[in-house]
Specification:
Oligomer: single chain
Helix content: 10-25%
Order of helices and strands: EEEHEEEEEEEEEH
Radius of gyration: 21 Å
Number of helices: 2
């Protein structure tokens, strides 16, 4: 029988786990060029990469019980940055099927996402284990829809939530503390004028030049 312990949340630190694997966040589609008001979907994964002779803590421990990520603001040259507007813009992966743990918290400078696995549905079932390609295991946490604001470049990064231990394996192994705190993965949104706006501006400039030539 698995005994699940959801401990208070703590910050991650750069480290190597007892299983010698390394852990990170990955954003699929990490660079977008948009017009104001457009949307873009970014898929966020937790990865476990094994070195030679390493053992997967996630596989041995029965998959994940819960997982977390913070999408934090880095910089923006836009008056209104690209952002996640609503909790419904975050689709936590169905493998994290516990509505009592699943959480989306939208704040002005960050978005916290937590996904949980409901062991009561089948106490013998494994939690999310994702897919393995080569030496890397990838577990999707969520699809996140960003909405472009005004013109400019917005950069956000994927990092730990400072809430406590909330990336756990079913055997109670805590993965918080084994994610990087530097060189964090980023997502860039370059919001440019709509083509019609550019066309109007070009026509206006051409008319102005003609008047000056007269």
């Amino acid at each position: 029988m698995r005994h699940i312990l959801l401990t208070p949340l703590v910050a991650f630190a750069t480290a190597t786990s007892a299983f010698a694997a390394t852990y990170n966040y990955v954003a699929v589609s990490d660079s977008h060029t948009l017009n104001p008001g457009d949307t873009a979907i970014v898929s966020i994964y937790i990865t476990e990469t094994l070195g030679v002779g390493d053992t997967s803590a996630i596989d041995v421990g029965g998959g994940l019980f819960s997982a977390e990520v913070r999408i934090g603001s880095v910089s923006s040259t836009a008056t209104t940055p690209a952002s996640v507007l609503l909790a419904s813009d975050v689709a936590i992966d169905p493998a994290f099927n516990d509505p009592f743990i699943n959480l989306v918290d939208i704040q002005p400078t960050f978005v916290d996402i937590v996904g949980g696995f409901d062991v009561s549905i089948d106490p013998l079932a494994d939690g999310p284990k994702g897919t393995v390609v080569g030496d890397t295991r990838s577990i999707k946490l969520a699809d996140v829809t960003f909405t472009a604001g005004t013109e400019g470049v917005t950069i956000v990064q994927l990092l730990d939530t400072p809430l406590g231990n909330n990336t756990l394996i079913l055997d109670n192994t805590v993965l918080d503390g084994f994610f990087p705190t530097s060189n964090l993965p980023t997502i860039t949104f370059n919001v440019i004028p709509e083509p019609t706006s550019l066309g109007v501006s070009s026509v206006g400039l051409a008319a102005l030049l003609r008047r000056r030539r007269r």
